[in-house]
Design a protein that fits this description.
357 residues; alpha+beta
């Protein structure tokens, strides 16, 4: 299907959807919500497409005036042509990006997991820094950040921590954060002032709904036990901690932060469902990316993706060779968006180049 015919088909579908959602009484069950979402998703694409068509027609009209006999109109037409020569490529690229195949998980909420890697206590402190960075970034974006599980280290760092992040396009923005994050700085415990290198691993999983992944109760082994570690006065007095093992895959999740066994079980199931869904998602993405020449990183969770160098105040993303010298702003959350946006644009550019080839 040619580009113009594809746009014609989308314009026709947009009109059909407009007629359907304007008469909600005629729709059954969840049809209205489904069609309304399709209509709202399609609307900005149609607006861009119509703007492009209008600009293209205006360019043809301007060229006709430039080649005409009316000298008084030529100067105005030349100015208009100069403006349109810039606008049309921009609208064309915006439309092409809008028409790129969508990642079905982009609109989902996310489960964030941060684990200390090499570097002992310093790695755990860095893991805690990263976890708080994402919490502040979520706040800045108006997302809800719910801590699911935290395992503290001796010096106040985190051996591992997980959270549920919900809001608009959370996974689309944060999925690029998965991988190994490396820090170079002088640890608080270092008496000689030497710079150490430590690491933490971040995993961002699309949060799965019940309809996304079906879990058979017979496939689960659920153990309850007494919580350990820091907590409220009653944290160690009841068997409130929950460990769930998904027998077919061996995936194990445990939660003990809540005093309620029921709440810990619900949190553990949420993480388990996300991990099982993510395994399928990663498999599909690997198959899809195998044929791609340009992709942002390998998607491997063991890949080193970013370095935070404290002495230089530098943050470098190794996948796109982007370096900034505003480490404090990145760790505080406000500077992280620039990396997320750059990674999204790089991915879009790679996909566009494949289409053009």
């Amino acid at each position: 299907m040619s580009f113009d015919k594809k746009i014609d088909a989308l314009v026709k579908r947009h009109k059909e959807l407009s007629d359907l959602v304007s008469a909600p009484d005629k729709l059954k069950g969840g049809e209205y919500a489904k069609l309304s979402k399709e209509y709202s998703d399609l609307t900005p694409i149609i607006e861009t497409a119509l703007a492009l068509r209008q600009a293209t027609q205006e360019l043809e009209d301007a060229k006709a005036m430039i080649n005409g006999k009316d000298e008084g109109m030529k100067e105005l037409a030349l100015e208009e042509k100069a403006t349109l020569d810039v606008l049309i490529p921009k609208l064309t690229e915006d439309l092409q990006i809008a028409l790129l195949p969508k990642d079905e998980a982009d609109a989902k909420n996310a489960i964030l997991e941060v684990r200390a890697g090499t570097g002992g206590d310093e790695a755990a402190l860095f893991a805690a820094d990263l976890f708080r960075m994402y919490q502040r970034f979520a706040d800045l974006n108006g997302w809800k950040f719910e801590v699911l599980e935290v395992s503290d280290s001796t010096l106040g760092g985190y051996k591992d921590a997980s959270a549920s992040i919900s809001g608009k396009n959370v996974f689309q923005k944060l999925k690029w954060e998965s991988g190994v994050h490396r820090v170079q700085r002088v640890p608080a415990t270092e008496t000689q002032g030497r710079i150490h290198t430590s690491a933490a691993t971040v995993a961002v999983l699309p949060e799965a709904e019940d309809v996304d992944i079906q879990i058979n109760d017979n496939d689960l082994r659920i153990d309850v036990f007494r919580s350990s570690g820091p907590g409220g006065q009653s944290v160690n007095t009841t068997d409130s901690a929950v460990r769930i093992v998904h027998i077919p895959t061996g995936v194990t999740v445990q939660c003990q932060d809540e005093k309620s066994q029921h709440k810990n079980k619900a949190k553990a199931l949420k993480i388990l469902r996300a991990r099982l869904y993510d395994a399928e998602y990663q498999k599909r993405e690997a198959e899809r990316s195998a044929s791609r020449k340009g992709q942002v990183g390998s998607g491997d969770r063991s890949e080193r993706i970013r370095t935070y160098n404290y002495p230089q105040g530098r943050v470098t993303d190794h996948r796109i060779n982007l370096t900034t010298y505003n480490l404090d702003m990145v760790i505080e959350g406000s500077g992280l968006g620039a990396f997320c946006d750059a990674l999204i644009k790089e991915d879009q550019a790679a996909k566009l180049s494949e289409i053009k080839e």
